[in-house]
Amino acid sequence: MPIDPDTFRSVLGRFATGVTVITTRGDDGLDYGMTASAFSSLSLDPPLVLVCIAHDASMFPVISTATHFTVNVLAAEQEALSRRFAAKDPNRFDGVGYTRGKFGPALLDEALAYLECRTAHQLESGDHTIFIGEVEAASAAPGAAKPLLYYRGGYAQLER
Predict the structure, then answer these.
(1) Where are the domains positioned within the chain?
(2) What is the chain's mean pLDDT, rounded?
(3) pLDDT over threshold 90, residue 84
(4) How far apart (Å, rounded) are the C-alpha atoms in residues 73 and 22?
(5) SS3 of 22, please?
(6) How many whole angstroms from its chain centre is CA 153?
(7) How far, in Å, CA of 59 to CA of 160, rounded?
């Protein structure tokens, strides 16, 4: 018998993760985005990453048909932006600064890094789908900015 959801969530909460905002463009030409901490590198050759999106996420139907998505890695100062893209607000991009990536999805201003990905595979498992993206372009911000972290159900800062 599997463990109960509260125990599972509590144990997983002990694993600190970086915070990302996944962006894409819909067939309607509109921008879509959501906060995600279920992100990981997968392969160096070819360069692959993965992100897990819940089936009930408002962005799920859009990313399911998108050819490209972008992973925006957030800086410590971008907690408000993370909260905004985690909320059920249909106008998440209103007033948010961004540029257009090479393949269409938004690159959020002042993010630590960007990974522009072509959707290579989708694997459904449980209540999520794993989207595997082949990284076609990437960049990292210069300097020593700190990442935004998520730990034990809340935002955390890297001490240094």
Answers:
(1) 5-149
(2) 93
(3) yes
(4) 9
(5) strand
(6) 17
(7) 35
Q: What pLDDT, on the 0 to 100 scale, is given for residue 90?
A: 79
Using 50, 70 and 90 to split pLDDT, how confident is the model at 160?
low
Q: 21-37 burial, b for 16+ CB within 10 Å, e for fewer? A: bbbbbeeeeebbbbbbb
5, 140 contact by CB (below 8 A): no
CB contact at 8 A, 66 and 26: yes
Each residue's pLDDT tens digit, 94-146: 999 999 999 999 999 999 999 999 999 999 999 999 999 999 999 998 876 89
**Residues 6+ away with beta carbon under 8 Å from 6:** none
Which superfamily does 5-149 belong to?
A: Electron Transport, Fmn-binding Protein; Chain A (2.30.110.10)
> Is the CB of residue 24 less than 8 Å from the CB of residue 68?
yes
Residue pair 52/37 in contact (Cβ under 8 Å)? The answer is no
- Alpha-carbon distance values, 74 to 65, 69, 111 (Å): 25, 16, 5
Res. 45 pLDDT band, cuts 50 70 90: very high
- Separation in Å, CA 141 to CA 10, 28, 75, 77: 33, 31, 10, 14
Alpha helices by DSSP H, listed for 101-152, are none
